[in-house]
Design goal:
alpha/beta; 4-stranded antiparallel beta sheet; 17 helices; 13 strands; about 40% helix
Length: about 475
């Protein structure tokens, strides 16, 4: 983990906890947390596959931190998560203070200009320096700031996978239409994923002397495949390319160390797997080391008096500080996101990753057994590619979108399991999309719920096959 720079200390900014002591929160992270470090370290060394860690009582305590509707098994964290009880209570208290003392509430909560204390806390958790990380509005906001802040010219080429989200595609297409930047799709493997080299090779085959940057999702929202981010960023760096990572599904699901990944930019969500409030995100911008990409903080309110006078040389100023101040922010939401991050840190991010990916592996195994090999998985088995997203279609014709979307809706309406569908091209030049039910399993789920889901899916599949 990177050590703190810029005179920031781990304790900076935590004084707002003088306002809310988080009594129950501390109890959750106190006695229960005493046993966490060794378990988290052990989880990091073990493959992320069943059986799960034998800690049912601990994870039951975690589940009690959430107020999810007990009549619905919510399996769509890939769209949005759910705030833990005490984070929700804190968020309400922050908003109440903001409403009662709008002029002074920020200083009372320790949210000083540029949120240096909060950024220092996040830097410790995500393996970077405080001047490289800030709180954004969401992944799309972060990607837009990155892509439109870099310097591209007509004819410059950007490589992106054929499974990218509109959050990246929208600003990329603005570059294409406005400046004549060339966007080149890279076909990544979907059904036959064996090793990290496959993904690097896909990009190698597309690079040209015009290529300036690569864009890829750390975990694809379409299938849930975890791409080898470290290997891709290392290859990009060796070839003088800027690496931009869509990390919408990573924060809160898997442990992240931005310096270890080696990316130039990383945009993540705060409201999905990290279970913070809506319209919150985490944005990383590499500010140390060699060959820093020229970056224009075009949507920073501090540009004219902070970035501009230094000639846009990022090593001379705190880029994250500049990006943190972008007009009026929802300070209460950002502070609640930091609370959620701190809760995750108390539990142990390695421990959470092991549990989430282990439960996902258990789901895949249960589906194979129940469906007796029938159906198609679009997410690979290997632990290095694992995530909390499982994409599966039980029907023979994976291009029958009407049948699969009906299956997802009936699973919710008739059985109480709420997931979603995704559609995508398996091969880049496919004329028809494939469809899958995308199931999100997180730290507030358990095997009993997974078993119930699989039984419901099998029952509904049989009914639909028989015309019911």
């Amino acid at each position: 983990m990177a050590e703190i720079k810029n005179n920031a200390k781990p304790g900076d900014g935590v004084t707002r906890r003088g306002f809310i002591k988080l009594a129950g929160y501390a109890a959750f992270g106190g006695a229960a947390a005493m046993a966490m470090p060794d378990i988290a370290a052990a989880a990091k060394k073990k493959p992320l596959k069943p059986p799960l860690s034998p800690e049912p009582r601990f994870w039951e305590k975690v589940r009690q931190e959430f107020i999810l509707d007990p009549d619905v098994v919510y399996l769509n964290i890939g769209t949005t998560g759910a705030m833990p009880r005490r984070v929700l209570e804190n968020y309400a208290q922050y908003n109440r203070l903001a409403a009662s003392r709008p002029r002074t509430f920020e200083s009372e909560l320790g949210a000083t200009f540029g949120l240096p204390g909060q950024r220092a806390e996040l830097a410790l958790q995500f393996g970077c320096y405080p001047d490289e990380i800030c709180l954004s509005r969401n992944t799309t906001d972060g990607l837009d700031a990155i892509i439109n802040g870099l310097e591209f010219h007509a004819g410059d080429e950007i490589l992106l996978t054929h499974h990218e989200h509109i959050g990246a595609l929208a600003p990329l297409n603005v570059l294409q239409d406005r400046y004549g930047v060339v966007l080149t799709e890279v076909e990544i493997p979907v059904l036959e994923v064996h090793d990290a080299a496959q993904f690097v090779e896909c990009f190698k085959q597309k690079i040209s002397d015009r290529t300036k940057a690569i864009v890829f999702s750390h975990i694809t929202y379409k299938t849930g495949t975890r791409l080898p981010a470290k290997e891709l960023c290392r290859w990009a760096s060796k070839n003088g390319l800027i690496s931009i990572v869509d990390g919408a599904h990573a924060p809160g699901m898997i442990a992240l160390d931005f310096h270890d990944i080696g990316c130039d930019f990383y945009a993540g969500a705060g409201h999905k797997w990290q279970c913070g409030p809506g319209a919150t995100g985490i944005l990383y911008m590499r500010a140390h080391g060699d060959d820093l990409p020229k970056f224009w903080p075009q949507n920073s309110s501090t540009y004219t008096f902070l970035a501009q006078p230094t000639g846009n040389l990022r090593e001379q100023y705190d880029i994250a500080y500049a990006m943190q101040y972008r007009g009026q922010a929802n300070i209460a939401a950002l502070l609640a996101l930091v609370d959620a991050c701190n809760m995750w840190e108390r539990i142990g991010r390695d421990r959470i990753e092991a549990y989430v990916c282990g439960l996902s592996a258990y789901l895949k195994k249960a589906l194979r057994k129940k469906f007796e090999g029938q159906g198609t998985f679009f997410c690979p088995d290997g632990p290095e590619f694992a995530s909390g997203l499982t994409s599966f279609n039980p029907f023979d014709d994976v291009t029958d979108g009407a049948r699969l979307t009906t299956f997802v809706q009936r699973l919710q309406d008739e059985y109480g399991y709420q997931a979603r569908y995704t559609n995508f091209r398996i091969l880049q030049n496919d004329l028809e999309d494939a469809y899958a039910i995308r199931i999100s399993t997180h730290l507030f789920h358990n095997r009993r719920q997974v078993d119930g889901l699989v039984a419901a899916m099998c029952d509904l599949y049989g009914r639909m096959i028989m015309g019911g």
